[in-house]
Amino acid sequence: MRNSRLAVATLFFLLLLLVLHVQGMAEHLYLNYWFYDFITHFLGGACIALSFSYIAKNPKHAIWAAVIGGIIWEIFEVYFDIMGWPISSRAYKIDTAIDLVMDTLGAAAVWVIIRNKK
Questions:
Q1: For 18-34, how does the pLDDT look when each residue is reduced to its tens digit (9 = 90+)?
Q2: Which of 33, 48, 110, 114 could make a disulfide contact with 66, Cβ separation 3.0–4.6 Å?
Q3: What is the DSSP string of 54-106?
Q4: How many independent structural domains does the chain possess?
């Protein structure tokens, strides 16, 4: 994928993620739709992978960057107590695992697309 197209795609998906997250918080979409969190985490992983691929010019490690970014986000949620369930609960552990899987899947999708464009 050429650099200018990668830059445009990165900015588009970052903006889309921002809009979805702000709307999700304002309209309680995270609470009202069980799958909404899946969408934003998938896009979050994709955005990290796109950004990493653009900045580092190396998509090989983009999946790891998204995994690390996802872990940092989960720590952020715990620190600011915004995860929705007590940290020791089964629901929290399942939610965190799904969030990290979705982050990874978003990054993997980007890696596959970039790899096939070259």
A1: 999 999 999 999 999 99
A2: 48
A3: HHHS-GGGHHHHHHHHHHHHHHHHHHTT-SSS-TTSHHHHHHHHHHHHHHHHH
A4: 1
How many other C-beta atoms are found inside a 10 Å radius of the C-beta of residue 72?
Answer: 11
Q: Which residue has the tokens 């998509």?
A: 59
Is pLDDT at 84 greater than 70 in this prediction?
yes
DSSP state of 6: H
Q: Which domain holds residue 12?
A: 3-117
Per-residue pLDDT band for 65 (boundaries 50, 70, 90) equals: very high
Q: How far apart are CA 17 and CA 117, in angstroms?
A: 23
